[in-house]
Structures are given as C-alpha cells and as structure tokens.
Amino acid sequence: MQYECVDCGTMTRVGCPEGTVQRECPVCETVTAWEPAFEGEGVSF
Predict the structure, then answer these.
(1) What is the DSSP secondary structure assignment for residue 36, as one 8-state letter?
(2) Which of 25, 11, 10, 32 shows the shortest CA–CA distance to 2?
(3) Are 6 and 33 in contact (CB under 8 A)?
C-alpha cells in the first residue's frame, strides 16, 4: 500500500498497516504521520 507523508507529500510503500502510520520521513528527517495515498483493488486517489 502506498502512503504519503502528511508534512511534505513524499510517497512510500508500507507493508500491511492500515490508517495513519508514524514513521521517519527521509525528506523531513523526523518521525511524521503517514496516511494512505491509495488502496484497494482499484486505484483511488
């Protein structure tokens, strides 16, 4: 599943978590919140 950093918009792939994820952003260089960018069988943005 693709996730997007809520601070800078950087995209990354996260295994199986759902909802908001807290992890380090390589661009912000700090732990930020990440929200699903799209999910499911079809693509929804």
Answers:
(1) E
(2) 11
(3) yes
User: What's the CA angle centered on 7, arms 35 and 25, to 5 degrees?
Assistant: 80
The first and second tokens of residue 32, run together, are 């930020």
- pLDDT tens by residue, 1-45: 889 999 999 998 877 777 788 999 999 999 999 998 865 555 554
Query: If you count them, how many residues does the chain have?
Result: 45
Report DSSP state, residue 43.
-
Cα 8 from Cα 41, distance rounded (Å): 26
Q: Among 1, 43, 10, which Cα is nearest to 29's? A: 10
- Whole-model pTM: value is 0.69
